[in-house]
Amino acid sequence: MRTSWHRTDTMAENPIPFYTHGFTMAPMAGVTDSAFRRICIQLGATCLVTEMVTAAGLSRKSVKTKSMLKFHQDEKPIGVQLFGAKPEDFARASALVSPLGFSFIDINAGCPVKRVLRSGSGSALLGDIPRLLEIVRVTKQNTDLPVTVKIRLGLTRENPVPDNIGELVAEAGACALAVHGRFRTDFFAGEADRKRMKQISELSPLPVIANGDSTSVEAALKLRDDTGSTGLLVGRGAWGNPWIFRGLNGGNPHPEPGELHDTIMNQLLMMMEYIPSPQVFHIFRGHLVQYFRGFYGAAEIRNRAVRTQSLREVDMLAAEADIAMHTAVEE
Known about the structure:
The chain has helices spanning about 15-20, 35-40, 55-60, 65, 85-95, 115-120, 130-140, 165-170, 195-205, 215-225, 245-250, 260-270, 280-290, 300-305, 310-325; strands at about 25, 45-50, 55, 80-85, 105-110, 145-150, 155, 160, 175-180, 210, 230-235. It is α/β, with parallel strands linked by helices.
């Protein structure tokens, strides 16, 4: 699929324009596994990122953690996102992932979940900028891959990140900065603070990728343009609606007749390659309820989706939903 990256002069020296100036599927724990990532790139995402992977787990050579590094040959370009609290863990983890075929390493300094914060990881790093910068430095020192950073606007409105955070992470070795336009205490409530995002973008020598409130093609492009960002990191807006990536590339942002059914079945069949039954159906129910929205009768279909236990049941329900989506008014 032909892309339409929002190009700027910085692309000339940029090693990862597919991320910094494209439309990336944002990492979402428990959502963006291999199957869903493949769906997104088939529909126009220019870049993918793994679910966040613990640097400490990789440092300890945890088998379970290392399994999260697996990706399909069709999932390229793809970055690996690491989270943690200790620079020494990032040093070992970055060296371990470097030869595995990833396009870049992303450092998570934005996750707002309490259990992540309690370990000093994710958004907690925004309350200790020197430690965040040391993590960027040691990561870059232990890899030949480009290093990027994902942040929020700060822990609280009273404790924002420095206006020149882009300059700081650049000096530490990062080549791009993704900014979610909320504070940690906001979680996902309210609207992204576009004014603050623009301030960070204007002062940053690095490309800035905007994240937050990309619920539609129009909203996503407006977020990018309002904030002066070069690219987009699309998260919740793509869950159940991966066609948003096609729309961002100038195509139809909605599924064609038959496409909802086919996409659901393709994703499930890919998940069955690495998740056994019946576990795969329990996990896939979360995706189904996201796909079944925005059309008459969707609520009733969602109620049945959470009880699906077989390939045949999902097949029949997806076919029914596809017909309802294209023959009835929106619910």
